[in-house]
Amino acid sequence: MRFGIVRFPGSNCDADCHRAVEEGLGEDAFYLWHRDRDLGGADAILLPGGFAYGDYLRAGAIARFSPIMKAVESFARAGGPVLGICNGFQILCEAGLLPGALARNAALRFLSHDVHLSVERTDTAFTGAYRRGQVLRMPLSHGEGRFVADATTLDRLEEEGRVVFRYVDAEGNATPEANPNGSLRAIAGVCNEARNVVGLMPHPDRAYAAILGSNDGLGVFRSALAATAAAAS
Amino acid sequence: MVPRQGILDPEGQTIGRALRELGYGGASAVRAGRLIRLSLEAEDEAAARDEAERMCEELLANPVIEDFAVAVRPAAGSAATGGGSA
Prior knowledge:
The structure holds two protein chains of two kinds.
Chain A: E1 2-7, H1 14-25, E2 28-33, E3 44-47, H2 68-77, E4 82-85, H3 87-94, E5 101-103, E6 111-119, E7 135-142, E8 146-148, H4 151-159, E9 163-168, E10 187-191, E11 197-200, H5 218-232
Chain B: E1 2-3, H1 10-21, H2 45-60, E2 66-67
Antiparallel strand pairs in B: 1-2
């Protein structure tokens, strides 16, 4: 399986994603440049973390107009697996491929520490390798990660089972203290209607091996492998 | 562009608190946003406003979290006679 990793000017977790795929998963990864117009035959697309275009205007607001995003949109609409991590999540929301928006953290501080997440749904392209309710530990690193949407959208996401990850404590409880950035309903990750596009603020790419402090994130990439194999059969 | 009603605005809240501590007790409902000023060539004030609103909808504001307002002023020395700012 080949993972295409989109580099924007200002991406800085592209190499993390590359290593997660090649070292962690043992599959192929290659880079795509934001000015490319096709996806080079990728089986899955990763939009990595960072500060595309310096986060000017709003995080992800300019990146969504990069030439490659048209190809990413068609790929996503055709059912191709697309994962946005951190800044990649922000870009997917700005592009309208995922609902909601990521606003400045409630405490107005850049956060960089480990968090616990519960896997709310395993029927997406990037969570099939987990158990429902499984608690994962991985780092987050962002200034604008507070997930917001209007109440109608939030209710719809809950009803349709599109809240994929929630901030929880180590025991799996969604307490106010466990919510690092003030995200509504403690949402850390969501998916689109077809469940092939997933975005999350924490970094599975920085938690793919025990030497990094956690390998809980590896399942995100492994899930895509199984999803792609299932789609091909 | 300012955060929509109902969207938590921690920056506005903090500014409001600071104002009240300074003695501006009447200050409330502070919303902190962003101002973008640009020059635009257009037929008239209505056309300029229309184009600026489209810019806001497409790029400058995120409708999920922000409201926007447009103010148009003829450039100094321009032929427009629209009569001041809106």
